[in-house]
Design a protein that fits this description.
single chain, 148 residues, alpha+beta, OB fold (Dihydrolipoamide Acetyltransferase, E2P), 2 domains, 5-stranded antiparallel beta sheet, 2 helices
Length: 148
Amino acid sequence: MPEHPLKAASAGILLFIIGLAIAGGLDHVNRQEQEQLRGWRRADGTVVELLKRPSPNGDVPVPLIAFTTTAGDRVSFTANVGTESPYYVNASVKILYHPDHPQDARIDTSARRWIRNGLAGGAALILLGIGGYVAWYASRRPGTAPTR
């Protein structure tokens, strides 16, 4: 630890605050996503066809996915995926849909959300721990405690 305990304590407090900000932002984003998905249902879908969608890099395969709602209606939709579709015909896909608008279904990316939230939460905890430790350790250095 350097001989500047006040700077070290300030750095620890800054790390702690950054950890709190990440945790608060993560909580806010998670609550927004939960609110957006309130009332949505899950279903198992199947890729029935790969459509070609034009893009600047040439045609991109986009999956046409079909699924059956809990009401028994058969619905199909074109998924919005990135430049490379990891899907193939007859692939099984987890679907999220709103019962009032099943045609607006989307691919369920809850595994990605859990991974993102876990990594961001872990980073926040690490910053909180390191920042708290650095601030505590700097405050225990000789010359920082009040003298009698």
